[in-house]
Design brief:
By secondary structure, this protein is α/β, with parallel strands linked by helices. Helix content is 45%, strand content 14%. Bound molecules: nicotinamide-adenine-dinucleotide (NAD). Pfam families: UDPG_MGDP_dh, UDPG_MGDP_dh_C, UDPG_MGDP_dh_N.
Length: 430
Amino acid sequence: MRLTIAGTGYVGLVAGVCFAHVGHQVTCVDIDEKKVAMLNKGISPIYETDLEEFLQEGLQKGLLSFTTDYQSAYRDPDVIFIGVGTPELPDGSANLSYVASVARQIAESVERDCLVVVKSTVPVGTNDKVEQFIKDSLVHPVRIEVASNPEFLAQGTAVHDMMHAQRIVIGIEDKHSETVLRELYAPFNLPIVAVSRRSAEMTKYASNDFLALKISYMNDLANLCELVGANIEDVALGMSYDGRIGSRFLKAGIGYGGSCFPKDTKALQYLAAQYGYNLRTVTAAVDVNNEQRYKLYRKAANRMITFNGIKVAVLGLAFKAGTDDLRESPAIYNIPLLLEQGAEITAFDPVAEENCKRQYQFSMQYVQTVEDALRGAQVCFIFTDWQEIRDVEPSAFKSLMRTALVYDGRNLFDSRAMLEAGVEYYSIGR
Ligand code: NAD
């Protein structure tokens, strides 16, 4: 099939390379000229395992191309995917201006009957509006159908998640859209859940917000475990054997970040409020997370007389391992607090350093190894669960740091091993 994908971010680009990988002819459109030029050279602007390999394969086979020329890209494909961002507005609602602008560009350009598929995460009812808007604005008399196909990939494992998704949810209002989407996804051989458009839109928020809730629940419990002398990891282990609970997403830590859980929880709260409904469970998840991200900073601030002139090692900048994305990362919330207090920070992250330098003007030193960050430090904060950090021997904290004082937001180390190595070690819920 001939596909055009609007947006080459985490979702659009991964979808583009994966659809090309299974043999579809894919054109990806972005408004960012620099990104498009990089992509046409086979260089991925984001870090994801296998992404660059798939990108180069698609380019070499002639199945994948990138352009800013939306008019030709939207003129006559079989399917157009909308995968642009829907970031949070100050009031918590989803900013739909990027989706609207793609809808306008499609209406201006499309010259052949076409299925438009909304992959971006959008509030319930948006697909209806996109359809109406395109139909009202069409320049050429063609038949447009709109379907919802929310994306469930996780950053850090995005290509794998797209190729081996646990399910494909499609929201359709007509048989033809369903047939086209089933054919499009047939090479992936994955379970397809076909529902109404509104249910598909809601399924995306329902899934993300449930995961956020699960994390906040474990973090809330972890805080209580600390008070009552239980260990959250033992508790999680005991819970995990219950098939009704499941074993994933039971890890306590410094709170969720990234571009999705924070904005999708707020967007659903906003949607509920529009209908006069208070979604209390999701509100609780958001409240717990807002506090959790500062938990270690607060603990350290209670333990230390000052951060002024103190050498702080920050291990991990990305919001999770496997990505260079800094959006809503706990590190990005805590670094300014430490700097304001006069801390002298040395930071390590295996892939997010460039993004951090570009997006933030933090006056801190960046180093290429964990050891270099630890050398001479008086306190260490661990914000990301990178393997490179996990691999450090407890004894290295003791031998390299001036004061072996570690605040671990990811529970990467065994508390006893750290204690035996002579490290004053604080983690979450243990
Ligand atoms: P992103 O911010 O990484 O990328 C969006 C891209 O769209 C940018 O490259 C931008 O230049 C481009 N763009 C903006 N306007 C455009 C236009 N008119 N035409 C073409 N391109 C345009 O976003 P993302 O993280 O890929 O997220 C996209 C959507 O998918 C969001 O709704 C998000 O909630 C959802 N989602 C994201 C993830 C994730 O892990 N990042 C997972 C599932 C769903």
